[in-house]
């Protein structure tokens, strides 16, 4: 029975509702970690050399100095994997005897203000006996390299291997084997707010509160309590407003551990504000990988097998909680991407070096594997005399559910359809004509595509496959309607810019029949929220949204039971919408707040089936879902300056149901911008001694409004059975597709020269080098146009 | 350490009499000595623009000045942008066009554009986008910031 | 990233300023003007001056003066002053065109023309303009004032011949004749970044041929300079694409480019050729 009341109910999901987060932020009323004053300030003395033995750390008497020697009883950080030949390595909170990267915290200076803390750091006498550093991943496994950790003599600390039985045979008999060697240079996620922490000890409760810039407050509490030997109950972690994370703030900062230790030691408040130089040097890096990828194709371009060698430079230590397996193992599992392929061989290694540790960064390996695969597709098409789109058409997964060669189950999606949307929108024939005309004028235009899958919203089953010491996945949401009819949702997720408060309010409003402004979401406080994993891996809308839906349904059910009593009607006839509970087909109705008031203040009137109060909770732990997209780009390469400009950028995306299209588009746009940065601008550079050369924003080059193009976004909304809200995640897709699409476009533009650029960022210097090395006199026909 | 100096920072029309060492940057004094934490610190070397404020009507990086240099100047920060409960057109436009996500860079962008529009009310759209390249945002990809600013600028011009 | 301690001095007259500098320069005292380069250097503690003499309060340095044949820019004049032409004719237009390439809007509200010269960054637009137009600067100290050609002022990247007690109090740029044409082209990786290479060219067009050519490059070598070899190519010739190419080639041959994180010497040489040719092309009406 479909009651008429339902049809007139307001639907909040699907609307571009303005965000509830915004008014305080635009007024400057946001509360970020560094906004909280403290009695004491910490500054870290950091290693100026990549590798060495600490010979001496000393300071004048008036300098309050803390070193590893003071931290007896504090355990080192030692994240665990139980698979993939993982070699556990330990990271002391402060360097203990040896240093392993430039920027590693060696000592802490405590002072009453930041200025003097820095003065005192300059007075510290730090003597280090240099040892030979290992900087590059290939060098690390070269055999001659020193061991960064004695436990891992060959510097490999995680290694995944897979090979299907027929793989060699497929390669041996293939019509065409195509190989690409790609290199992704090191990046920093670069949130605009650097890391920071404020810890305060309360002598009355003997508890410590840590306010810190994190994506995972509950995990920070677990980790820090474990390392310091505290009860978790004695530590409260608050993530206030967090100025961007992108993965960098999901890993445990050793500095945060020390802050809690200091607050307890000095029994006061103590703060650390990471400066930008520290952030570039000592906060987590990512994407430093080499991939050699071969594809076996039949004569018609069908992909028969893939073979990959992946080498990920994971830096000096393994990050908590994901471990350094996060990049190499995600690459291993997801490299085949959106293409149907039945044979696969892969060796994926994570190697330690004397560089800043790696941690997840938006996209995690997928920008690199997508780059490798999409370069492979373009090259194979060229050599097989096929069109770049046709070869993708031939190989994209089209029937669902699809089980990948790695055993991943792809839920309903639209790989082919989104590609066709992008192809139609960009009008390839018209572009090729324009490209020809431009070429006649000595201008080089190029078009590039990237089709990819984005695994999102995965729960414990996915993480368990990795064999992690800690298996994240589910989320819990507690929902309470108070006697005045207002709703508070307490969530374990920890949004920091994603607009989750607004999106969850939309879900709850639809389910509970109230307006979204009557809903408040509480997050980022371990005292106020149920244990949860936080916000990362494009998971919050799917998993926390799903838990919100489930908890809302329980509260809704109770509202119906209350209304059934109060309106003296069968529960089946009660419909709640727009803040009113009605009896279908009658004019009998009560406002929702009247139901709430009654169940708290006159609970005696109800039978045992109702009971007092109006709150409930639910958890959700899905297996995961795959979003998909195709990016299409037109670039112009100025072959004289070697500058690249992006003329057009199209994203055809399918992330299932869009809860708030405005927020969804914002995520895509921001992701693409970071992808453009990856593709063209940003690179962390170390010299051969392991010294980092990019420690200012003038050297590490995040793009500005000038460099980021307008982005045209189109959506399909495939309703997947893999997620109860029908929403898929989309936080990372923008950054996954962009490097591949942009660099493919650059290569198309430069195809008259016969060059192949297979590393990113594609800087002007790299284009210049490639053009200078090109043997070919430019042909007047772009190769893509000939196919 | 050198002797502290007594200075007066006039922020959003309110005088703050504070004592600072000469080396204290203006942004540190605004945030710590005056407690106005809406102005953010993103790089402390003049590249990111998170600390942008208005100094005597002009947008400047408050990390690239010493507080003693602003003694007696009129400073305006994001806290002074709204007129009581009524948001500045730029603030409303950032909300309407989803021009912010984490919100950390937002005060800097607001003060930058408010300052540019006070200096050059008839600045071209191209000029505005050029000015917007002064500041860094990591979340939005800038497109919605550009939309928000162009829309607010058009509204402000129409309202004159 | 907090600056080290220093003593702060804020003179209100030039006389006080030069006295203060004479007194404190031997104790590691420096002039603070716009501060847009000095303050970040201090924040990184790459500079730790013990004294700063802030000349922002010296009113007599704050003006731009136009004489019969020159523009005189005081030490307090900020980049933003040039957003609109400060003088009729080619020079005012040239300056207002170039200024939009200097850093970013808020930086231009504080940074100064003279400060750029004193800082002597190889990629400074004002250093290029001054070198190309043969500017002269006035250096003032308690010992008096002296005039120095810009070519004599800038020794090498970030290094000048100013004595430690001298303040760069003004820059004198010659006004450009009415028939002057100019072209400026700059290549940088991001909007507002320092140029990887840039060029400013000026010449007079008399009876259809080029007179008084000036070809300057910046960001390429340690010091922006004129390239005589290219000027010789242009002199007395009619502007044409071939001529401009030849002049650009002369620059590429004559330049001794530097190498850094963003650009190798090889790449810079090719960029120099391109920016010069494009600057020349832009000089056409």
Shape of chain A: globular
CA-based gyration radius of chain B: 16 Å
- Low-pLDDT runs of 5+ residues of chain B are none
CATH architecture of the largest domain in chain B: Roll
CATH class of the largest domain in chain B: Alpha Beta
- What fold name stands as the CATH topology of the largest domain in chain B? Ubiquitin-like (UB roll)
Walkthrough of the structure:
The complex is a heterotrimer of chains A (787), B (160) and C (285). Chain A is an alpha+beta fold and 787 residues long. Chain A has three domains: 4-28 and 474-620, Aldehyde oxidase/xanthine dehydrogenase, molybdopterin binding domain (Aldehyde Oxidoreductase, domain 4, 2-Layer Sandwich), CATH 3.30.365; 33-131 and 195-273, Alpha-Beta Complex (Aldehyde Oxidoreductase, domain 3), CATH 3.90.1170.50; 285-460 and 623-786, Aldehyde oxidase/xanthine dehydrogenase, molybdopterin binding domain (Aldehyde Oxidoreductase, domain 4, 2-Layer Sandwich), CATH 3.30.365.10. Chain A has 21 helices and 31 strands. In chain A, helix 6 crosses helix 7, helix 15 packs parallel to helix 16 and helix 18 (661-681) crosses helix 19 (733-749). Residues 1-7 of chain A have low confidence and may be disordered. Chain B has two domains: 5-80, Ubiquitin-like (UB roll) (Roll), CATH 3.10.20; 89-159, [2Fe-2S]-binding domain (DNA polymerase, domain 1, Orthogonal Bundle). Chain B starts with a strand and ends with a helix. The longest helix of chain B has 17 residues, at 143-159. Chain B is 34% helix and 16% strand. Chain B contains five helices and five strands, in the order ββαβββαααα. Chain B is α+β, with helices and mostly antiparallel strands. In chain C, 32% of the residues lie in helices and 26% in strands. Chain C has helices spanning 14-24, 38-43, 90-99, 105-110, 113-119, 125-132, 150-153, 228-234, 241-254, 265-282, and strands at 7-9, 29-32, 51-54, 64-66, 70-74, 136-141, 144-149, 154-156, 159-160, 167-174, 180-187, 197-206, 209-218, 225-226. In chain C, the strands form four sheets. Chain C has a five-stranded antiparallel sheet. In chain C, strand 2 (29-32), helix 2 and strand 3 (51-54) form a beta-alpha-beta unit. In chain C, 55% of the residues are buried. Classes of the chains: A alpha+beta (787), B alpha+beta (160), C alpha+beta (285). Chains A and C meet through helix 3 and helix 20 of A and helix 10 of C.
